[in-house]
Automatic annotation (TrEMBL):
Keyword entries, A-Z: Cell membrane, Membrane, Transmembrane, Transmembrane helix
Name of this protein: Transporter
Organism from which the protein derives: Paenibacillus montanisoli
Signal peptide location: none
Domain of life of the source: Bacteria
InterPro entries: MMPL_dom, Mycobact_MmpL, SSD
Membrane topology note: Multi-pass membrane protein
PROSITE patterns noted in UniProt: SSD
Residue span of region Disordered: 121-141
Pfam families membership: MMPL
Record-linked SUPFAM superfamilies: Multidrug efflux transporter AcrB transmembrane domain
Length: 781
């Protein structure tokens, strides 16, 4: 491997224009494809096979009108004023009517008029019978339990789809689209808001607040640029020149452009979630900068320490550090692709796009970077750096890294116990971690999502922010759903302690399915709502048996509940897959049994502490003002799987670069703790710089507008901070000092089976040194 990469690096250095133009052509093709196919993305996160998705698919097939996306608009009045005044009611009514006239919006009145006259008559008669039965069954209890809200009445007739709170300060207009939210043209939400604002603009006292489904969210903001600026500063400090620092940034940005652009170019044919490109940018920038940094730093060290020419140093850097880059990138790719086994479509797409981003950046580091070094030539090291290197050549340098590793080796048992204790304490909040899709309840106070959520909760109860859609079918194969059965079921459902409102919506034309809207009393992410969904679905529940039906539950809230459950079930399987595959890779790279096990145990400590901190910050709300959010809430349901995959791969990056340097020292004659200290001295500076860069890039996303991106950015930044600085640069040398030379033990039978990948480039360097000796003898002779 190292010999092949050495030749590749030399070819790229010698013919830089060939490689540069090749990558420019690739970028041009990507841009051209985007121009032809356009960019398509949505917020849809669908998990096939879940109960809610099955019900939604069934509705889309048998009753398409009921399967469309839902939206709502909240009207509020100033403190102490009402909306149901003679002046304001006509404005609200006009707004409602104008929305119902829009394309893609279902008009309930027109829908009812389209039904056949006989069906409508039969339905009205049955509805009246059902209502009578319901009234007789509930009696006075219904009037006592009347909710503090009701329909908005105009001239004795309710305005369809609008409810008003008891104090008249809040009105809620709920409506439905003809298609799912993700299939709506981008202009529809804006058209809806234009119609509403146009109708009520005459009264400045009416405030219009759209629901989250009608707002355009920006996934990322301007703070991400701060991370890139910090990365540039760290690169300059580490490499000592603007030219050298600019190369990793250039290759990383090009890698992100090609990989994310490629994903957008194909988005017409594959579903791209809004978070997918952001994730690819996060990972691509971080690994792209780090991988190029490792190679450029190795070239400069060879020039300054071994007095090699820039061409030979670049070739050897690609052959040695490039091998480590290749296997580090492969580990990240395997960790990401392990998500495919889970079988969740949108998560698989995220993983593939992020893995492609890593793959492209590995290729750029091994091909484009040496070609750029060819353009730079000997200028990669300034005269000042060369003179400084010569002045220090005969001096013993004991910097902070040397003192740190010596202290770690000396107090190894204290370090091991201390690190385990600290990370164990940080992991304690994991036992209370809750998973869901963040709702308006945890959005910032100045956002329309939060204002809408709070206004609805104040006027009608939190449950109105997460309505459930029920599909009831007769239990017998030949049974029929009648209005009497539908209203009987509605009566039983209303008795549940966590049900606020039940609204029968109708029966399909074949008479074998009834649609019912149900409003819980609790919010969409509450545990009580999750329990309500389980109660409704239970086949032997008293609710279903009393009406002789089976109940299916869907809607945005039910879909999110199912998603969280599915991801929680898949998490252990995923962990097992990536650990086994990555242990195999580390076994091949280090030819050791102990090191892969040690690396995996260290990662488990890192990931538990990371999720513990994420729970304390984003669920419990610790330091919320510092991290730019107002209210805590459940963690993003797919965050643990996503972050675990990315962090495992990146953690093994540092493991490869740090421990391969220790192995290189061991192979070259440093025994016992001397190999640990020597290898640490060589690699710690660049690993430290790489970790700071990666933390900076991820931390830039903590202040993004989107709550999901915030949590992912925080978890990745905290995870790298813990794993790189506490585990890899502190715990690893301490454990290596305990095992000493035994750390490299490998059974002879396994040693014979495993191929020698020569990741450290020892065979390559020996071969090149032999060639140099032959050339020297030939010149002397």
């Amino acid at each position: 491997m190292s010999t092949f990469l050495y030749k590749l690096g030399k070819a790229a250095y010698d013919k830089p224009w060939h490689f540069l133009l090749s990558w420019i052509i690739v970028l041009g093709i990507v841009i051209g494809m985007i121009g032809v196919n356009g960019i398509h993305s949505s917020s849809e996160m669908k998990i096939e096979g879940t109960e809610s998705q099955k019900v939604l698919d069934q509705l889309a097939k048998e009753l398409p009108a009921a399967s469309g996306g839902q939206a709502s608009i909240v009207f509020t009045a100033p403190e102490g004023e009402r909306l149901d005044t003679q002046e304001r009611i006509p404005l609200i009514q006009k707004a409602v009517n104008d929305v119902y006239q829009l394309e893609y919006v279902i008009n309930p009145a027109e829908l009812a008029a389209q039904a056949g006259a006989s069906n409508a008559a039969g339905g009205d008669q049955a509805a009246q019978t059902g209502e009578a039965n319901a009234e007789a069954g509930q009696g006075a209890e219904a009037s006592q339990a009347q909710a503090p809200y009701g329909p908005l009445i105009v001239n004795g007739v309710p305005v369809i789809g609008v409810m008003i709170s008891a104090d008249g300060s809040v009105a809620l207009f709920q409506f439905q689209f003809t298609v799912q939210q993700t299939s709506l043209p981008e202009s529809v939400p804006d058209t809806v808001m234009t119609a509403v604002n146009g109708a009520v603009h005459q009264d400045p006292g009416i405030t219009v607040i759209p629901s989250e489904s009608l707002t355009t969210k920006t996934a990322i903001g301007s703070t991400e640029a701060v991370g890139i600026v910090v990365a540039a500063v760290v690169l300059f400090i580490t490499l000592g020149s603007v030219v050298a620092a600019g190369l990793p940034l250039l290759t990383a940005l090009l890698g992100v452009g090609i990989s994310v652009g490629g994903a957008f170019a194909l988005s017409k044919f594959i579903h791209i979630n809004d978070i997918t490109p952001v994730l690819a940018i996060m990972v691509g920038l971080a690994v792209g900068i780090d991988y190029s940094l490792f190679i450029v730093n190795r070239q400069r060290r060879m020039i300054l320490d071994q007095n090699l020419g820039a061409r030979e140093a670049a070739s050897r850097a690609v052959g040695t550090a490039g091998s480590a880059v290749f296997f580090a990138g492969l580990t990240v790719i395997i960790a990401l692709c392990g998500m495919l086994v889970i079988g969740i479509g949108f998560l698989s797409t995220m993983a593939i796009v992020a893995a492609v981003s890593v793959f492209v950046n590995v290729l750029l580091a091994l091909t484009l970077l040496p070609s750029m070094l060819g353009f730079v030539g000997e200028r990669i090291c300034t005269a000042k750096a060369r003179n400084k290197s010569r002045a220090l050549a005969n001096k013993t340098r004991h910097g902070l890294a040397h003192r740190w590793v010596n202290g770690t080796v000396k107090f190894r048992w204290l370090i091991i116990v201390g690190v385990v204790a600290v990370l164990g304490v940080a992991a304690i909040p994991v036992t209370k971690m809750e998973l869901a899709i963040p709702s308006g309840a945890s959005a910032n106070l100045d956002t329309t999502q939060r204002q809408s959520y709070d206004a609805i909760a104040k006027g009608f109860g939190e449950g109105f922010n997460g309505p459930l859609l029920l599909v009831a079918e007769p239990q017998g194969a030949s049974g029929k759903m009648t209005p009497e059965i539908m209203y009987q079921l509605a009566q039983e459902l209303q008795k549940h302690e966590n049900v606020s409102l039940v609204t029968p919506m109708g029966i399909n034309q074949t008479g074998d399915m009834a649609i019912i809207s149900l409003i819980p009393k609790t919010g969409p992410t509450d545990a009580a709502t999750r329990q309500l969904v389980e109660d409704l679905r239970a086949p032997n529940s008293s609710l279903a048996q009393a009406a002789g039906v089976t109940i299916g539950v869907t809607g945005f809230t039910a879909i999110n509940i199912d998603m969280s459950s599915k991801l929680a079930e898949a998490f252990p399987l995923y962990i097992g897959i990536i650990v086994i595959l990555s242990v195999i890779i580390l076994l091949l790279v280090f030819r050791s049994v102990i090191i892969p096990i040690k690396a995996t145990v260290g990662f488990i400590l890192s990931i538990l502490a990371t999720f513990g901190l994420a729970t304390a910050v984003y669920q419990w709300g610790w330091l919320h003002a510092f991290f730019g959010f107002d209210t805590g809430g459940p963690l993003l349901s797919f965050m643990p799987i996503l972050v675990t995959g990315i962090l495992y791969g990146l953690a093994m990056d540092y493991q490869v670069f740090l421990v391969s340097s220790m192995r290189e020292a061991y192979v070259h004659g440093h025994k016992g703790t001397a190999s640990v200290v020597h290898g640490y001295d060589l690699a710690s500076r660049v690993v430290l710089a790489a970790a700071v860069i990666m933390v900076s890039v991820f931390a830039g996303f903590i202040f993004a507008p989107d709550a999901m991106i915030k949590q992912i950015g925080f978890a990745l930044a905290a995870g790298i901070l813990i794993d790189a600085f506490i585990v890899r640069m502190t715990l690893v040398p301490a454990v290596m000092a305990v095992f000493k030379d035994r750390a490299w033990w490998l059974p002879k039978w396994l040693d014979r089976m495993l191929p020698n990948l020569d990741v450290e480039g020892d065979k390559l360097i020996s071969k090149l040194n032999a060639q140099d000796n032959v050339s020297m003898k030939a010149k002397v002779g």
